[in-house]
UniProtKB/TrEMBL annotation:
Gene3D superfamilies: Hypothetical protein, domain 2. The keyword Ion transport does not apply. Transmembrane segments: none annotated. Keywords: DNA damage, DNA repair. The keyword DNA repair applies. The lineage of its organism: Bacteria, Bacillati, Actinomycetota, Actinomycetes, Streptosporangiales. InterPro entries: Alkylbase_DNA_Glycosylase/TA (IPR051912), DNA_glycosylase (IPR011257). This is 3-methyladenine DNA glycosylase. It comes from the Bacteria.
Amino acid sequence: MPEGPLDVGLVLRPYRHGAGDPTWRRSHDGAVWRTSRTPDGPGTLCVRVHDTTVLARSWGPGAQWLLDTLPALLGAADDRSGFTVHHPLVEAAAREFPGLCIGRTGRVMESLVPAVLEQKVVGQEAFRAWRLLLRQYGEPAPGPAPEGMRVVPEPEVWRRIPAWDWHRAGAEAVRARTIATAAWHAAKLEAAPTSAEADRLLRALPGIGVWTSAEVRQRAFGDPDALSVGDFHLAKLVGYALTGQATDDAGMLRLLEPYRGHRHRAALLITLTGLRPPARGPRLAARDYRAF
C-alpha cells in the first residue's frame, strides 16, 4: 500500500462518474464499492479503512485480480519524486490533502467509455447516458454489492449496441461511433505497456483527442502528468486559483509548466481547494437527444 496517509475515498473518487454511477458506491460505513471487468472477468471490490489498516474483499471471477492490483489502485505505484511546489496555494493544498495519491486501474475501456460520453457535454448529460447504458447492457455486480451495481460490458457488447439504444441513452451518433470504434481495438488498448503508448494508440482513433486520452490515462495508468487540456472548466479554475484571473488552455499550460511531470497532480490539488472564478451567467442545461 502507499506509504504515509491514505484517503481511500479521495483516491477512488476519480473512478466515479456521477452520483448514480452503477460501478461505484460509498456505503454508510464509509466503505467504497467498485466493479470492474478484469482480464479474468467481472469482479466487485469493497474497500474500507479500519484505524490505519486497509481492509478489502472481492467477489466474482475477477476477485483475485482485484485484490492483486489493489495496491496500485490505491496509489502504491504513485511516484511523487520530482514534485516540487511553486505556489503557496499548491503547498497549502498538499498539506491539507496528504492522503491524495494517484491510483491506476490497469483497465482502459472502463475509463474510455465514460470519458467519450463526457466529451463536450455537461456532466449531468454524460452521467445520465452512462447510467442508462450500464443498466441495460452491464452485468449485475457479483457478490453482495449494493443494489443496482453493474459491471461494464465486454468490448463486443459496446460494438453491438444499436443506434436507437444510444439515442435513448442520450448519446448522439458521433460519441456512439467513437466508443464502438475503440471497442474494436480494445485488446490493443488494454495491452498498452505505458501511458505514452496508450496516448499514441488512443489519439490514432477517430473521435479521441488530447482531453479524452488524458482522462483515460489518469485513471488507467495513474499518469501524474496527463493534464486534461481542453476541459471546459479546468483552465479557468487553475488560472483563477494561481493568479486571480481565469485563463485558457495556453495560459494553464504556462502556469503549470514548472510542474511538468506532475501537472495532473498539481491540477488535482488546485481543484481540491474549491476556489472557483465568479459565475458570469446561467449554468448550461443538459441536452436530451432522446427528444430529437
